[in-house]
Amino acid sequence: MPTSAYAEVLASLYRLEAAKGMDFKLERVALALKNLGNPQLRFATIHVAGTNGKGSVAAMLHAVLVAGGYRVGLYTSPHLLSFAERIRIGQREVSEDEVVELAREVRGAATVHGIELTFFEFVTVMAFLHFAHAAVDLAVVEVGLGGRLDATNVVDPAVAVITTIGLDHQEFLGTTLASVAREKAGIIKPRRPVVIGRVPPSAAVVLAQAAAEQGAAAFWLDQDFSVAGDAACRFEGMGAAFDQLSIGLRGSYQHDNAATAIAALLRVRGRFPLADAAIRQGLAGVCWPGRLDVVHTKPLVLLDGAHNADGMTALVRELPGIIGQRRMHLLFGVMRDKCWQPMAQAIGPLATSVTVTTVLPPRGAAPTEVAPAFAPYGPVRLAATPLDGLETLLRTTDPADAIVICGSLFLVGAVYPSFFPQGRRGPCDAVSGTTPQP
Predict the structure, then answer these.
(1) In what helix (H) or strand (E) does residue 110 lie, and over which residues does it extend?
(2) What is the rounded average pLDDT of the residues 424-434?
(3) How far apart are CA 162 and CA 198, in angstroms?
C-alpha cells in the first residue's frame, strides 16, 4: 500500500501533466538542474532517441552494462505498472521514500524559484538527481519525445543513439521523415559519437548533415556494423564480432536493436571496458515487457505496445511466427493524437473480431470514433474500459485462439496487472520464458 506522502507526490505530478501538458523548452529544466548543481553532469550518459526501438535499445544497454559490473541508471517512459519503473539503478526501482525526497528537492530548486516544470521535466530532473545521489557510473537515458527540445537533452552524452525514424507525434515533430529526423538529430552533440540504426534514406541525409555540422563521428547500421541470422544472430563491425547471440526479446526487429546497442557499447568500451561475456549475458537476459509479450497460453494472449504505423507494421510482420494459425481476436485502444487509421488498416485484416476500448480518457480516442475503421474486416464491439474488453475476450474466446492487445502502451499497462492476481510483481517477471496464468 503506497504511503500517503508518496501518493500525494504522484497526484501532484499527474496534476502537472493535466495542467501543463507538453511544452517543449529546455530553459526551464536547465535552470532547475543548475539550481541543483547540474547533477546530470556528474555521471556519463548514453542518450537514446528514435521513433521505435528506443526503449528496447535502452533496456539492452542497461542490461549489458549491469552484467559488466557497472552501477547503471536507467530512465525510461512511460511506465506500465508503477511510476517507479521510470527510474532504476541496476535492477532496483526508485523507492517510495526516495520519490518523496527527490520531489521535495526538485520543488525547492524549481517552484520556489518560480520555475514551472511540466510533468516530464519534473520527473527528468528527479531521475538525474537520483543518479547523481547514487553516484552511478553511467546512465542510459531514453528520450521522451523527439530529441532537440526533449527535457532529457541537457546531457553531454558519451555516445548518442538514434534507433529508427518514422512518422509519429506529427503535431510536434513535423509531417515528413526529414522533419522528424531533424528533431531526433538534436541529441547529436559536438564531437560526441552517434550510432544510427535502420533509417530511411531521406532521414539518413538529415542525420549525416547534422553529425557533420557537430563534428560528431557517425556509425551506421549496414555500413559500419551489421547483423544477420534468425533465432541466433551474428554481429560484426567496429573491430568486433559476436556469433550465436541470443536476445531475450521476441521479434526479428530486435536484431537491429541489439546491433545498435552493441555498436554504442563498443564506442564507450575504452572508457567502460566490457567483457564479451557481459554483452552476451546482458542481451540474453534483457527484459522489456509489453513488446511481443506472451502472458497467457489458452487462449494465447499477446501484449504489444505498437502505437504508430511503423510499430503496427512490425507487429503484423511478427504475428504469424507467434500465433501461428490461431484465429486472432483484437483488443485495440489508441491515443487521440495518434494517426490510428493506418494502424487499423495494417492489423484489421488479420482479426477474426475486434474489440475497441479507450485508454486515459479524454486523451484516448473514443471507441465510437475508432470502431468504423475496423468495420470492413469483421465484427466490431465496444468496451467501456480495457478491463471490460479483456474480461469479455477471456470469457468468450476459444482456448485454441489468440487475443492480441495493442494500440497503446497505456492499454498494455491497463491490462497487464490482470495476469498477476497474487499481488503486484515487477513487469519483468513475465519475461525470460515464463508464462503467467490468470
Answers:
(1) none
(2) 46
(3) 9
Q: Which of 265, 311, 266, 272 is nearest to 292 (CA)?
A: 311
Phi, psi of 175 (to 5 degrees): -105, 5
Read off the pLDDT band of 31 (50, 70, 90). very high
Residue 86: Cβ-neighbour burial (10 angstroms; 0-12, 13-18, 19+): buried
More confident residue, 111 or 214: 214
User: How is 278-315 classified by DSSP, letter by letter?
Assistant: HHHHHHHH----SSSEEEEETTEEEE----SHHHHHHH
Contact 282, 68 (CB under 8 A): yes
Which residues lie closer than 8 Å to 169 by C-beta, 6 or more apart? 145, 146, 337
Element (H or E) spanning 370, and its range?
Answer: helix 367-370
Sheet hosting strand 159-162, strand order edge to edge: 92-93, 87-89, 72-75, 138-142, 44-49, 159-162, 194-196, 218-220
Q: Across the chain, what does the average pLDDT equal?
A: 92
pTM attached to this predicted model: 0.92
DSSP, collapsed to helix, strand or coil, labels residue 270 as coil
CB atoms within 10 A of CB 307: 23
Model pLDDT, residue 318 = 95
Which residue ranges form the domains of the chain, and what is each CATH number?
4-285 (3.40.1190.10), 293-430 (3.90.190.20)
Q: Where are the alpha helices (DSSP H) in 21-135?
A: 27-35, 54-67, 96-109, 119-133
Check residue 433 and give its pLDDT: 34
Average pLDDT rounded to a whole number, residues 427-432: 48
Among 59-68, 174-183, 419-428, which is the least confidently predicted range? 419-428
How do beta strands 72-75 and 225-229 pair? unpaired
* Grid cell of 11 as nine digits: 497526484
- Bin 69: left if φ > 0, else alpha if -120 < ψ < 50, else beta: left
Bridge partners (DSSP) of residue 45 are 139
* Beta-sheet strand order (sheet of 300-303): 293-297, 300-303, 402-406, 328-332, 351-356, 380-382
- Map residue 423 onto helix, strand or coil: coil
Cα(67)–Cα(279) distance, rounded to whole angstroms?
8
Among candidates 96, 98, 124, 95, which has minimal Cα distance to 109? 124
371-405 burial: b if 16+ Cβ within 10 Å, else e: bebbeebeebebbeebeebbeebeeebeeebbbbb
Place of cell 530511411: 200
- How do 87-89 and 72-75 pair as beta strands? antiparallel
The Cα angle at residue 209 between residues 205 and 212, in degrees rounded to 5: 140
